[in-house]
């Protein structure tokens, strides 16, 4: 049976919840088109998040790896295109680390592109009435750290799994403490993740569709 690993983060930055984990944990143990979904929480910590992620990949041998994280201020499901080899933390992580202008992987390439079918995922969500877009930046905090580390690990270990990163908005209860910030209910995010897993399983190659930006 195929396995899909879906990860999310613990709360960080003063938040009491992380919407990524609130959604992802609902998928643990689900069967989607014959694939078993395993949900795991990562610490919001530089280095430690990758140690946990790599151990789960080695244990589970997944077909797909979806890493999911909070992007407060974004209004839709953001399917990340690229991760860069830079840690540049605006705030400390949950262990008090705040690396500035350091590489995720010493000597690694400048960037990696997601190996998930990002256009198929984005358009597939839109067709289901779920707001989604391709994002051109995963930031420079732990989310980008995990995405870059994931793709580097898969390449360096010659692991055929496909992987990438998905950013999601605040939950409504979080947005209530950030006036004007957009939000998305956990049930919509769960539905989006289920659909994206299904789409990725059935789209080994991406579709050629416009999803760029002008700035």
Characterization of the model:
The protein has six helices and eleven strands. The protein is α/β, with parallel strands linked by helices. The protein has a single domain, classed as Peptidase C15, pyroglutamyl peptidase I-like (Aminopeptidase, 3-Layer(aba) Sandwich). The chain has a seven-stranded mixed beta sheet with strand order 2-3-1-4-11-5-10, sandwiched between helices. Strands 6-9 form a two-stranded antiparallel ribbon. It is globular and about 40 Å long. Its EC number is 3.4.19.3.
Quick overview:
This protein has one domain (2-202): Aminopeptidase, CATH 3.40.630.20. It has 6 helices and 11 strands.
Give the tags.
single chain, 215 residues, alpha/beta, seven-stranded mixed sheet, 11 strands, 24% strand, globular
CATH evolutionary superfamily: Peptidase C15, pyroglutamyl peptidase I-like
Q: Largest sheet, if any?
A: 7 strands, mixed
Distance between the termini: 43 Å
Q: Which ranges are low-confidence, i.e. pLDDT below 50, for 5 or more consecutive residues? A: none
Task: Figure out the total of helices.
Answer: 6
Task: Provide the structure class.
Answer: alpha/beta
| Integer-rounded radius of gyration | 16 Å
**Number of discrete domains:** 1
Order of helices and strands: EHEEHEEEEEEHEHEHH
Strand segment tally: 11
Strand content: 15-25%
Top CATH class:
Alpha Beta
Query: What is the average per-residue confidence, as pLDDT, rounded to a whole number?
Result: 97
The spatial strand order of the largest sheet comes to 2-3-1-4-11-5-10
CATH topology: Aminopeptidase
Shape, per Cα inertia axes = globular
CATH architecture annotation: 3-Layer(aba) Sandwich
* Share in helix: 25-40%
Subunit structure: Homotetramer.
Family: Belongs to the peptidase C15 family.
GO molecular function: pyroglutamyl-peptidase activity
GO biological process, one term: proteolysis
């Amino acid at each position: 049976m195929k396995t899909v690993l879906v990860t999310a983060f613990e709360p960080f930055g003063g938040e009491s919840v992380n919407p990524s984990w609130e959604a992802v944990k609902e998928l643990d143990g689900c069967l989607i088109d014959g694939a078993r979904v395993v949900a795991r929480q990562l610490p919001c910590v530089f280095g430690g998040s990758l140690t946990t992620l790599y151990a789960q990949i080695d244990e589970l041998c997944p077909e797909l790896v979806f890493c999911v994280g909070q992007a407060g201020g974004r209004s839709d499901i953001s399917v990340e295109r690229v991760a860069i080899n830079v840690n540049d933390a605006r705030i400390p992580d949950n262990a008090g680390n705040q690396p500035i202008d350091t590489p995720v992987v010493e000597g690694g390439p400048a960037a990696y592109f997601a190996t998930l079918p990002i256009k198929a995922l984005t358009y597939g969500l839109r067709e289901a009435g779920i707001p989604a877009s391709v994002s051109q930046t995963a930031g420079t905090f732990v989310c980008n750290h995990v995405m870059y580390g994931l793709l580097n690990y898969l390449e360096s270990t010659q692991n055929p799994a496909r992987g990438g990163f998905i950013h999601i908005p605040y939950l409504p209860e979080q947005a209530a403490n950030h006036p004007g910030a957009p939000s998305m209910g956990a049930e919509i995010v769960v539905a989006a993740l289920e659909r994206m897993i299904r789409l990725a399983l059935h789209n080994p190659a991406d579709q050629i569709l416009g999803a760029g930006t002008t700035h």
